[in-house]
Design brief:
alpha/beta; Rossmann fold; about 15% strand
């Protein structure tokens, strides 16, 4: 996509928080901005991240775990939002764009039963959605 406002959500594994943020922003803004995500050490998308997005009818098409380099091969980004403190600390320098830090707890590290883990993923999903919604209402002031 050749979009002026390309937003990158960065996390360590690109398995949960950044995937949630990518899908939620894409759902909220359509083609107005290009929402993508990457990991400093990408792994695989957590199945519960997919599940909790589908619970609220947010498309998970095109979600896959990727590196920063893979994302940058598709073009530059306007803004990087680190959704975990480790990624913010290890954020690779990407010329020409700003970096924000929106750290969220990692639901993939939650313990307990499967239902406890689902609750943790839903909680983080809802916190990310609220942060994105507030940012958009404010006019996405950092881009």
């Amino acid at each position: 996509m050749t979009c002026t406002n390309r937003i990158l959500f960065l996390c360590t594994a690109n398995s949960a928080r950044s995937q949630l943020a990518e899908a939620i922003l894409r759902d909220r803004i359509g083609k107005e901005m290009d929402s993508c995500s990457a990991g400093t050490h990408p792994s695989t998308v957590h199945p519960l991240a997919i599940e909790v997005l589908e619970d609220i009818q947010i498309s998970t098409n095109g979600l896959w775990s990727k590196s920063v380099q893979e994302v940058l091969q598709e073009g530059p980004v306007s803004l990087t939002i680190a959704v975990c403190s480790s990624a913010a600390e290890n954020c690779p320098l990407v010329a020409g764009e700003q970096v924000l830090s929106w750290p969220f707890d990692d639901p993939a590290t939650s313990g307990g039963s499967l239902e406890d883990k689902r609750k943790a993923f839903r909680l983080i999903r809802d916190k990310i959605a609220a942060k994105i919604d507030a940012w958009l209402v404010a006019g996405a002031p950092d881009i």
